[in-house]
From TrEMBL:
Pfam family, one: DHquinase_II
Molecular function terms, GO-annotated: 3-dehydroquinate dehydratase activity
Residues the record lists as binding substrate: N72, H78, D85, L99, S100, R109
Keywords: Amino-acid biosynthesis, Aromatic amino acid biosynthesis, Lyase
EC number of this enzyme: 4.2.1.10
Function comment: Catalyzes a trans-dehydration via an enolate intermediate.
Substrates-to-products reaction catalysed: 3-dehydroquinate = 3-dehydroshikimate + H2O
Database matches in HAMAP family: AroQ (MF_00169)
UniProt record similarity statement: Belongs to the type-II 3-dehydroquinase family.
Protein name: 3-dehydroquinate dehydratase
Organism ancestry: Bacteria, Pseudomonadati, Balneolota, Balneolia, Balneolales
Record-linked InterPro entries: DHquinase_II (IPR001874), DHquinase_II_CS (IPR018509), DHquinase_II_sf (IPR036441)
Residues with site note (Transition state stabilizer): R17
Amino acid sequence: MNILILHGPNLNMLGHREKKHYGSGGQDDLMDLLVETFPEVTFNLFQSNNEGELIDRIHAARDESIDGIIVNFGGLTHTSVSLRDALTLLPQDKIEVHLSNIHARESFRHTSLTGGVCRGMISGFGFSGYVMAVRALLENRETS
């Protein structure tokens, strides 16, 4: 299985920002966890602080052999109709993950514009949320 992970603005700073919300690990730590937990899966991480680059990466995914997509668009989750529209172009299963519980934070974080076009959303479990998302993608592939 080939899974694309899309990270939005500021996620390149994991391990350096608000550890009570985001934990102490960085993106490399997350990828190490996923590769160790799921050695049979190929992971491709793409992170950008620019909305247009994320949209371009989503467009490119249409022509790739990607079986599932995990998205965490950071703050763009709550504001980007354009990312939502781009996600609708992809036939693959998509799962939105947030390290922190977006519903236990500021009210502007309670709404996800992108989550509505994903199969599901996992929020508030730190890196474990990504493990849950991969398991869900694997289980859905087995039942499809």
